[in-house]
Amino acid sequence: MELEEMKASWEALSKKVEKQEQLTTQMIENMTTQNFKSRLNKIGNWELAGTMICYAGAAYLVISFNKISQVYVQVFAIICMAILFVLPIISLMFLRGMGNLNISEKSYAETITAYAGQKIRFQKFQKLNVLFTVCLMVMAMPVLMAIQGKDLGKVSYYWSVIFPVMLVVFLWNGLVGAPLLRPDA
Amino acid sequence: MDKKELFIKVIKENEGLIFKVTTLYTNSPEDRSDLSQEIIYQLWKSFGSFNEQSKLSTWMYRVALNTAIYHLKQNKRGIATTPIDIDALRFADEKDTEAEERIKMLYQHIQLLNLLEKGVILLYLEGKSHEEIAAIIGLSVTNVGTRISRIREKLKTQIVKTK
Fold this sequence. Notes:
- The complex is a heterodimer of chains A (185) and B (163).
- The two termini of chain A are 34 Å apart.
- The longest helix of chain A has 40 residues.
- Helices cover 70% and strands 0% of the residues of chain A.
- In chain A, helix 4 packs antiparallel against helix 5.
- Chain A is an all-alpha fold and 185 residues long.
- The radius of gyration of chain A is 25 Å and the shape is elongated.
- Chain A has six helices and no strands.
- Chain B starts with a helix and ends with a helix.
- Chains A and B meet through helix 1, helix 2 and helix 5 of A and helix 1, helix 2, helix 3, helix 4 and helix 5 of B.
């Protein structure tokens, strides 16, 4: 089928499609009300749940901070709080990134470029996210133990076995697992 | 006629345009319905700022195509790659198997094109001039001509491969 034949078939299709009247006045009116929920910049339940969990974790660390006496554990706790606070904000900013779009002003080619750019930035952020998660997991352990009044030094094999294994697992996840998290993977 | 009445009239008169864009950029009737609603919502949002110096169809295609791209992103499903559900085209009243096959084949080949080519070919098939395609897509008129020639070659190769 040549392009010209395709055009003829398309014209035949157009004639049929243009005859149909599926949209009623009521349906169009519903889509123009302020109550209509646009899905383009909607934040999903999973993202909201993740944000709540992170903030709950950060709040727990803030409340329990005075139970931590060792300086290096306090530093770990502050870093953990910062990660738990900042990561959801960046994540939500990505999701809301489309809220500022001017769909009627941009040309199709500009929109494709912006779409590709956002996709690349999102992929980079996901890789960074995994690295931050590794840091969080490594540092959260001594912090949580200190809050519960336990001494990490007294946990058998923590520094010699548990910590190195945990580090290897998370680094592997960060280097090998991150590409699998891509939206188009 | 107030703004909303005018908008409803415009949408009803151009229902086919929205239908063709949504069919080309989605995989399922649910997706098609979602995208259709989103396009109408985005058109309504920018209806007030619509510059009447540009053609109504240029503005509508621009909003519809741009919304389709962001709808892909939202759904994380990528570009539609499955053949169109022919029932959606309402052929039931006049059964024409040959026409159905041609349309199916046409859609299958268009689905294999990239996003930019897909937009260009849609507008070309809609009978838009190179100037209008250039205005909607954001390319120069010469570039539109070159792209159409390349798409023509690409489609030829695809058809030969599938034979």
